[in-house]
Design a protein that fits this description.
By secondary structure, the chain is of the alpha+beta class. The protein has two domains: about 20-210 and about 380-435, FAD/NAD(P)-binding domain (3-Layer(bba) Sandwich); about 215-370, no CATH class. About 30% of the residues lie in helices and about 25% in strands. The chain is built from twelve helices and 21 strands. α2 (about 80-90) packs across α12 (about 415-435) and α8 (about 290-305) crosses α11 (about 350-360). The longest helix has 23 residues, at about 415-435. The two termini are about 35 Å apart. Bound molecules: flavin-adenine dinucleotide (FAD). The site of flavin-adenine dinucleotide has 39 residues, from α1, α5 and α12.
C-alpha cells in the first residue's frame, strides 16, 4: 500500500444536519463521492449531463472493468503533486477498494494482479452504484449540463463566514460542491472537457490536457505492409535522441503506427514531448529474448550449415523461425536486401545491418491518436491547488475528484483506483467539515 496513513477514512461517521452536497458528474469518482457522502448523512444531488450515470464504466477493461490492481505504488502514476496522491491512497487504498466492493455485494477476481468483478462484467460495478445510490437517497439529475457554479458568502451561527454554492439556475444552496467531470478522454462517454472550463471560472489552473493510454502515430509508409502483426517486444521511448523510459509486452502494428499495452504505457510521456515540439522516436527490439550476439551466431551457423547445399533456403525462410514473416520482409527491404537472397549468400556486413534493425528499429512518432481513442487524459487541474482532502485551496467548499485532476495512472486498473480513492476522500471530508461547523 502507498504512503503514510494520515488517518483511515471512517465510512460510518454521521453529520447531524442534513447538509447539502452537489456533485457535478456521475462517473466513477462522482458516484463514489456521492455514496460516501450520503452514507455519512449528507443530502446529495448528482448533476450529470448524459442521459445516464456511469457510462464510461461500461467501457472499461474491454467491458470487464479492471477496477484496481494488487501491485501498487505511487510510481504507477503521473502527477505534479506526489504528496497528494500518497495522502489520498493512504486514506483509501487498493485493498480498501477491494473490501468496499466485496462488502457491497461484488465478489472480486484477480488475473496477473489485475482486479475485476468476479462476473467479468463492468455492468456489475455500475449496478452496484446505481442500487446503493438509490438506497442512500441520492438525487440524480441526468441530462443536466453544469456550466456555472455561483459562489455566495454566508455566516454560520458561530459568526464564521463560509461559502455557499448554487448550481446553474437551481435555487438550492449547497454547502459543498464536488467537481467530478472527468477529463477529455473518450468524450462520447460524457467527459468532454467542460469540467476544466468550470474549474477555470473558479480561478483554477488547468495543465494542458493531452491524450494518454493511446496509440502512437507515424507517417512512415511501411506500416501499411505490417498492419495487423502482434509480437512481443521491448519498446524504448526516445526524446531528442535520449531514451527516457522503456516498456515490454505485446506490440500491435497498425496501418497508422503502433498500439498495444506497452505503447499505451509510453504514450503519456510521448504526448508531452510532442506537445513541446520535441523529436520523438520509439526504438523497438523485435526479439527481446535473444541478444544481438546470439542472433548473429545463430544466423551465421545457419549460413554455414547450408554453405555447400545445392538448394540452400532463403534467408527469409530462416528468419521466419524467429519473427513474423511481414516483419522479416519489411526489415530485409529496409536493409537493402533482395527478397530472394539465400542464407549462404549473406555477407557479414549485411547481417550486421539486418541485426541492427531487428534489435533497434526506429519509428519516428508524429502524433498520438486523438482524445476519442484515449483511455485517459494527461494533464488537468493543477494538483498544487488542492489540499490532501481534495478541497480547493482557492475556494473552500469546492472539491475535485478523479481524472479532472492532473493525475493519470498506468494501464492496469490504476485510473479507476484513483477515481475511487479521490471520490471517497472528497465525499468524506466534505461531510466531516460540515459536521465540524
Ligand atoms: C475505453 C476505456 C477503457 C478504460 N479502462 C479502464 C480500466 O479497465 N481500468 C481503469 O482503471 N481505468 C480505465 N479507464 C479509465 C477510467 O475509466 C477513468 O479514469 C475513470 O472513469 C475516471 O473517472 P472520473 O469520475 O474522474 O470521470 P468519468 O468517468 O469520465 O466521469 C465524468 C462524468 O462527468 C460527466 N460530466 C462531465 N462534464 C459535465 C458537466 N459539465 N455537467 C454535468 N456532467 C458532466 C460526464 O458525463 C461523466 O459521466 C478506461 C477509459 C476508457 C475510455
Amino acid at each position: 500500500m502507498v504512503g503514510k496513513h494520515p488517518g483511515k477514512a471512517n465510512v460510518f461517521m454521521n453529520v447531524n444536519d442534513r447538509s447539502k452536497i452537489a456533485i457535478i458528474g456521475g462517473g466513477a469518482s462522482g458516484m463514489m463521492a456521492a455514496l460516501v457522502a450520503a452514507r455519512g448523512g449528507a443530502t446529495v444531488t448528482i448533476y450529470e449531463h448524459m442521459d445516464r450515470i456511469g457510462k464510461k464504466i461500461l467501457m472499461t477493461g474491454n467491458g470487464k472493468c479492471n477496477f484496481s490492481n494488487l501491485s501498487f505504488s505511487d510510481k504507477d502514476y503521473y502527477t505534479n503533486n506526489t504528496d497528494l496522491i500518497k495522502s489520498v491512497f493512504g486514506q483509501f487504498s487498493n485493498q480498501d477498494a477491494m473490501n468496499f466492493f466485496i462488502k457491497n455485494g461484488v465478489l472480486v477476481k484477480e488475473k496477473n494482479q489485475y482486479l475485476y468483478p468476479l462476473t467479468e462484467q463492468a455492468s456489475t460495478i455500475l449496478d452496484l452504484f446505481r442500487r446503493e445510490l438509490e438506497q442512500s437517497g441520492v438525487t440524480i439529475h441526468t441530462s443536466y449540463e453544469v456550466s456555472k457554479i455561483v459562489v455566495m458568502k454566508d455566516r454560520s451561527a458561530s459568526g464564521q463566514e463560509q461559502n455557499l454554492f448554487k448550481i446553474q439556475d437551481d435555487p438550492t444552496a449547497y454547502q459543498k460542491v464536488i467537481i467530478a467531470c472527468g477529463g477529455k478522454a473518450a468524450p462520447k462517454s460524457g467527459s468532454d472537457g467542460s469540467g476544466y472550463r468550470l474549474a477555470q471560472t473558479l480561478g483554477h489552473e488547468v495543465i494542458q490536457p493531452l491524450p494518454a493510454l493511446v496509440q502512437l502515430r507515424s507517417s512512415e509508409s511501411y506500416f501499411k505492409a505490417i498492419a495487423g502483426v502482434r509480437t512481443e517486444a521491448i519498446l524504448k521511448l526516445c526524446v531528442e535522441g535520449k531514451v527516457i523510459t522503456e516498456e515490454s509486452g505485446e506490440l500491435q502494428l497498425t496501418d497508422y503506427g503502433i498500439s498495444g499495452i506497452p505503447v499505451f504505457q509510453l504514450s503519456g510521456m510521448a504526448a508531452m514531448a510532442l506537445f513541446e515540439k520535441k523529436r520523438v522516436e520509439v526504438i523497438i527490439d523485435f526479439i527481446p529474448s535473444v541478444s544481438k550476439e546470439d542472433l548473429k551466431e545463430y544466423i551465421t551457423e545457419q549460413g554455414m550449415r547450408f554453405q555447400n547445399a545445392e538448394v540452400p533456403p532463403l534467408l527469409e525462410e530462416i528468419l521466419q523461425g524467429l519473427m513474423n514473416k511481414k516483419i522479416v520482409m519489411m526489415l530485409m527491404k529496409q536493409s537493402g536486401m533482395k527478397a530472394d537472397i539465400k542464407i549462404n549468400q549473406l555477407a557479414p556486413i549485411e547481417l550486421d545491418k539486418l541485426l541492427g534493425r531487428i534489435k533497434k528499429w526506429y519509428v519516428k512518432i508524429t502524433n498520438t491518436n486523438p482524445f476519442a481513442n484515449a483511455q485517459v487524459c494527461r494533464g488537468g487541474i493543477d494538483c498544487m491547488q488542492v489540499s490532501h482532502s481534495c478541497e480547493s485551496l482557492l475556494i473552500p467548499g469546492i472539491y475535485f475528484t478523479g481524472e479532472i485532476l492532473n493525475v493519470d495512472g498506468r494501464c492496469g486498473g490504476y485510473n479507476l483506483q484513483w477515481a475511487w480513492s479521490s471520490g471517497v476522500v472528497a465525499g468524506l471530508h466534505a461531510c466531516q467539515s460540515m459536521q465540524k461547523r
